[in-house]
Amino acid sequence: MRKMNLAKCLTGIAVLLVAPLVLTAQQGESHIGKLTGNAGTGKQLYFRYCWGCHGFRGDGNGENWLPTGNYPNGPNLNIQPRNFVAATFKCRSTPTGTLPTDEDVYNSLGRGLTNSNMPSWITLTNQNRADLVAFIKTLSERWKTEKAGAEINVPAEPAPTVQSIQHGKELFTKLECWKCHGPEGRGDGPSASTLTDSNDQPIRPYNFAGGSRFKCGTTNHDLYKIFMTGLDGTPMPSFADVIKPEDAWDLVHYLRTLQVSRKSPELALWEGTKEGAEIVKAQKVRGTPTGSGVNQ
Amino acid sequence: MRGKYKQVLLLAVVVVVSASMLTSARPSGGSVSGKITYEGTPAKQKPIDMSKEPSCAKQYTTPPTTETVVTGPNNALENVVVYISAGAPDEAAPGKAAVFTQKGCRYLPHVLAFQVNQELNVMNDDQTSHNIHPLAKINREWNKSQPPGSPPIVDKYDKAEMIPVKCNIHPWMHGTFAVLKNSHYAISGEDGSFTLPNLPPGKYTVTAFHESYGDQSQEVTISGSESKTVSFTFKAKPY
Known about the structure:
The complex is a heterodimer of chains A (about 300) and B (about 240). Chain A has about 300 residues and is an all-alpha fold. Chain A has two domains: about 120 residues, Cytochrome Bc1 Complex, Chain D, domain 2, CATH 1.10.760.10; about 120 residues, Cytochrome Bc1 Complex, Chain D, domain 2 (Orthogonal Bundle), CATH 1.10.760. Helix content of chain A is about 45%, strand content about 5%. Chain A contains eleven helices and two strands; from the N terminus they run αββαααααααααα. A two-stranded antiparallel sheet of chain A has the order 1-2. In chain A, helix 9 crosses helix 10. Chain B is mainly beta and about 240 residues long. Chain B has one domain: Immunoglobulin-like (Sandwich). Chain B is built from two helices and 19 strands. In chain B, the strands form five sheets. In chain B, strands 7-13-12-9-10 form a five-stranded mixed beta sheet, with no helix packed on it. In chain B, strands 1, 15, 18 and 19 form a four-stranded mixed beta sheet that branches. In chain B, a hairpin with a 3-residue loop joins strand 2 and strand 3. The longest helix of chain B is centred in the N-terminal third of the chain and has 24 residues. Chain B is globular and about 70 Å long. Chains A and B meet through loops of A and strand 9 and strand 10 of B.
């Protein structure tokens, strides 16, 4: 009887001692599929690879970055490195205004952010990138009080058709995507030159004609998420309340046809129609920044 | 005759007494009122070129001007949020929604004050798409598209903050959300005046916030149902 009590007592003490450790351990972790990232390891990696740009405190004020117009020896970085203290992230699968999932941040590290100075960190192991995610999450109070947003629902993609491309084209006009991205998706709309990000730094809308990779991925699925969630911290808003899921795929299919220098099933379909062929030809004659795909 | 006078006198006394009892029975309501002014030369407000948005431009015979500093006669400063920043308890949000309307590619009102957790409705009365981008730093930063004919965007903020609001599509559109902890607030009118009514006796910090000139605070003590006058003067910058 006495032994039992003693055992219970000891277990109780053990639980009391261990409980806070377990809690802190959970706060310093990230979970991506089967990977569990550790913030302690992530911290060492951060102060080896990341802090030069993202700063000692993670506030995006590393010594490699200077605001536009303050370049003594030519431009260093054009877009301010992510401020992990504010924890506003561009690439998310969660609604605008919410925290991204661990996987979202992990994917951004592996992919890099096109048209910025954030490289792809695919050279690090998967485990190391998961560790970095865990450490990044310790840099903002937000991760302690908020959970990641609920991932938006992306329905299965229907096969592209001429009708879906045409409907997507109508949406592009109706939703006024062209105000920033330009009538041909070249990033030259009437508002393009006035855009600034949330740090008051000039920012350019995406030029579809000039590239194949988007800020947050390369696939149709990524493209769907980009305009539905918006790129927080930039002028790109969320269209989740405005576009029905089935309409969203039509817009994706149309946006692919604006990438005139990149082969895609959507572009092939579009060029197969009289209307599409004329539009694509006119675009190609104007040329693309890379000069590729111009058939003269 | 004399009896009748007595009756009238008695009635008058009763009326006066009961009236005074009624007032004293009400929750003691002191108030703070005053005037917001500027000194110096405020930045000249420029006419807005809306030619890139014809559906808005055609709503004006003379182009509207920017609203970073709005002034009235006798150096009055409009659009200043005056609120009790300390001394008053936090209050639950009222049931009524605060409404922010986009009309003619401008924000109506230019400065919208509401309480923490109060429902916010953003309306688009225009024939063009807007994106509503409140640049919150303490609260969550979101950015939503709102094409013509869309239902209102409904949201709320759970922390007090002065949030600049902008539309990226129409770069001249700027406004402010003043998210406050209690219902004791006012926005200065055309004559720069404001009143914070129904303040119980106590010691308060009154703060005045202007989007271009920042904020100022003053201490005020209210005893009984007295009305105190507090005025603020902002230094105007010509740029």
